[in-house]
Specification:
This protein has 344 residues and is an alpha/beta fold. It folds into two domains: 167 residues, 3-Layer(bba) Sandwich (FAD/NAD(P)-binding domain); 119 residues, 3-Layer(bba) Sandwich (FAD/NAD(P)-binding domain), CATH 3.50.50. The chain has ten helices and 15 strands. Helix 1 links the parallel strand 1 and strand 2. The longest helix has 25 residues. It is elongated and about 60 Å long. Bound molecules: flavin-adenine dinucleotide (FAD).
């Protein structure tokens, strides 16, 4: 049996863009719900910024211990437990996600668990998950459904030999060797982390520098340091003919290198701006299509936010800030007042 609930604002997606907007709208006295199909916190808290930084912290500490003689400190028999390192990162994420649930409660945001679908203008239906069947009647809708890793054509992500960053964040075993496709921030983070613990890392980038969207000077410093640490950085290089076998993955690295890795290939996602946006998930596409469809009839009432919006707002901090800005503009009788940018 379906239940009808009435809101000033329904936010679809509980990532930094969505939760910031929902919480701020709650603080401004609006009746607000946030629909999330997994766990509050979105990619950032659960599968992105936070768990990756937790892994980097472990790597940093281990690197420090390895070089502690330089500081006049001797440590003998330093070792690590890869499973515990991954588990610590998952625990950090879990704690942060619980924090968002607490903030929802504190700011009177109804947290609706499930997949939100805009059925007709002004109505969000929960089509799957624990709250399936609920229908939220709303004045305004904010779509903040984020993005997902881009897939390489003809390469199945099996989560064992071929991973996206999501699977890599909960790896069961440490790979002996890995090729990371894409040397943006995410690829670079995993390269640093795995290399610190002795995985042989090849970091491949089609463009002519690691961290291709950063300044050349900054990227050059990182590349130099990575090479010093033993990461094999291959720029202006394409990955072709990937063949996944039971115990290894083979591929061609075009410019002149043909190699083989023992364990797995990790695909580092491009979560950045335009490209990712255009190839975003089915869900995001649906959301976009729907928001465009209803725009003419519904004018300012449906907005997009965060990674889903692409280009300018791809990082969590910005997503959060934009979510806040939107929900602060309450003067026009809507929770926000900026014109919709749902159509490109
Ligand atoms: C490994 C990694 C490291 C990163 N590191 C950083 C960093 O250091 N700094 C930084 O600023 N950014 C970082 N990012 C990027 C950051 O995670 C994203 O920019 C940010 O999460 C985008 O926020 P968002 O709210 O737009 O989308 P998301 O965080 O992706 O949230 C979208 C949410 O919507 C939910 N959803 C989707 N469709 C539906 C639906 N129909 N119904 C209900 N719920 C739905 C999803 O489950 C998800 O929880 C990193 C990303 C990754 C992958």
């Amino acid at each position: 049996m379906s239940t009808n609930l009435k809101y000033d604002l329904v936010v679809i997606g509980g990532g930094p863009a969505g939760y910031a907007a929902a919480i701020r709208a709650g603080q401004l006295g609006k009746k607000v719900a946030c629909v999330e199909q997994e766990r509050p916190g979105g990619t950032c808290l659960n599968w992105g910024c936070i768990p990756s930084k937790a892994l980097i912290k472990s790597a940093e500490l281990f690197n420090k211990i390895k070089h502690c003689e330089e500081f006049g400190i001797s440590v003998t028999g330093a070792s690590y437990d890869f499973t515990k390192i991954i588990q610590r990162s998952r625990n950090v994420s879990g704690t942060m996600a619980k924090g968002i649930e607490f903030l929802f409660k504190k700011n009177k945001v109804d947290y609706i668990k499930g997949v939100g679908t805009i059925a007709v203008p002004g109505m969000v239906e929960i089509t799957d998950g624990p709250d399936k069947g609920k229908i939220l009647v709303t004045e305004n809708t904010l779509i903040a459904t984020g993005c997902k890793p881009r897939q390489l054509p003809d390469l199945e992500v099996d989560g064992v030999r071929v991973m996206t960053s999501r699977q890599a964040l909960e790896m069961k075993t440490q790979p002996k060797s890995v090729v990371i496709v894409g040397a943006g921030a995410i690829g670079a983070e995993f390269a640093y982390f795995l290399n610190a613990f002795g995985t042989k890392v090849t970091l491949v980038e089609m463009l002519d520098q690691v961290l291709p969207v950063e300044d050349h000077e900054v990227a050059a410093v990182v590349a130099k340091e990575f090479n010093k640490q033993g990461i094999d950085c291959r720029t202006s290089t394409a990955v072709e003919n990937i063949k996944v076998a039971k115990n290894n993955v083979k591929m061609d690295l075009v410019k002149g290198w043909r190699g083989r890795v023992d364990h797995c290939g990790l695909r580092a996602d491009r979560h950045r701006s335009g490209c990712q946006h255009r190839r975003t998930t089915v869900c995001a596409h649906q959301a976009r299509a729907r928001s465009r469809l209803h725009q003419s009839r519904w004018q300012l009432r449906i907005q997009r936010q965060g990674d889903l919006r692409g280009r300018r707002h791809h990082w969590a901090t910005l997503a959060r800030a934009c979510g806040d800005l939107r929900s602060d503009s309450s003067g026009a009788g809507h929770v926000w007042s900026q014109p919709s940018e749902a159509s490109d």
